[in-house]
Amino acid sequence: MSWRLSSHVLIAPVVDEAVLLDTATNDRYILNEMALNICTLLQEGYDGPQIVEELKQLYPDKSTEIPVDVEQFMTLLQTEKLIEWQEQRA
User: Fold this and answer.
1) pLDDT classification of 85: cutoffs 50, 70, 90
2) What CATH number does the domain located at 2-83 have?
3) What is the distance between the alpha carbons of residues 52 and 42, in angstroms, rounded to a whole number?
4) Looking at the predicted structure, is the pLDDT value of residue 76 above 70?
5) In this model, does residue 90 exceed pLDDT 80?
6) Fewer CB atoms inside 10 Å of the end CB: C or N, the chain?
7) Residue ranges of the domains in the chain?
8) With helix as H, strand as E and coil as C, how does the chain read?
9) Burial, 56: exposed, middle or buried (Cβ in 10 Å; 0-12, 13-18, 19+)?
10) Is there a contact between 42 and 5 (Cβ–Cβ < 8 Å)?
11) pLDDT tens figures, 3-51
């Protein structure tokens, strides 16, 4: 089991950020580079700890902040119903 972006979520990269659109509510969110990386890793099947490790490699100067940042962003995605819990395929 792992978190995945909900099927009603679209992401459009724009230069160094992205726009996340919730097609169910028409809400829009501006994602910075790190948030876009988190969403991309979710789409690739990474779980929370794997995302943290990947981001630590991408942003070594922020390695102590990354676990908290990932947890807060994942909580926001859950609260806004932008991610859903799915079974992993064998």
Assistant:
1) confident
2) 3.90.930.60
3) 11
4) yes
5) no
6) C
7) 2-83
8) CEEEECCCEEEEEECCEEEEEECCCCEEEEECHHHHHHHHHHHCCCCHHHHHHHHHHHCHHHCCCHHHHHHHHHHHHHHCCCEEEECCCC
9) middle
10) yes
11) 899 999 999 988 878 999 999 999 999 999 999 999 999 999 999 999 9
- The total number of residues shown for the chain amounts to 90
Nearest to 26, CA basis, from 51, 8, 47? 8
Written as six digits, the tokens of 45 are: 């099947």
Query: Torsions phi, psi of 16, nearest 5?
Result: -95, 10
